[in-house]
Design a protein that fits this description.
Number of helices: 6
Number of domains: 1
Largest sheet: none
Distance between the termini: 24 Å
Structural class: mainly alpha
Number of strands: 0
């Protein structure tokens, strides 16, 4: 799977988890879904920051986009940390979950439909994207094994 497809699949997985959490009235289930979302986002941001962004930032045209994405990651990580310590019945849990969802959706749309992914498609050939995809997959598998 090429790098962009792998990242889009991650975005879709998280979006579906958010939709389940948002649609659930069960506080305990929301908390369980949040834990899955948190794990997915932590793995995703790690592989983007350690593999994907360094590779694409080598191209001068993409540096500013990468810096913006890193700032968006900081916001998401801050929200995740704040939410870790909340119980599902906390009055702050659902509003923070909503803000987290909005931030993540904005970030995913910005990458996929904004300028980043289309520009990367123009600047990197299929072989380079496939190689980067393999590196992302290896990093992701390593992280998932470490977490379990």
């Amino acid at each position: 799977m090429n790098a962009l497809e792998l990242l889009k699949t991650d975005h879709k997985t998280v979006k579906e988890l958010f939709e389940k959490a948002e649609g659930s009235e069960n506080k305990k289930q929301q908390l369980q879904l949040f834990e899955k979302i948190k794990t997915e986002l932590e793995t995703h941001t790690l592989i983007e920051e350690t593999v994907f962004y360094p590779a694409v930032a080598k191209n001068e045209e993409l540096k500013d986009m990468v810096l913006e994405s890193l700032e968006e990651h900081k916001q998401v990580k801050t929200l995740l940390r704040e939410m870790e310590n909340l119980t599902a019945d906390s009055e702050k849990f659902e509003p923070k979950l909503k803000v987290l969802m909005e931030n993540v959706e904005h970030h995913a749309e910005e990458e996929e439909e904004g300028k980043m992914f289309p520009k990367i498609r123009k600047l990197m050939n299929a072989e380079a994207l496939d190689q980067l995809g393999r590196e992302l997959e290896a990093a992701k598998n390593k992280e998932v094994r470490k977490a379990s």
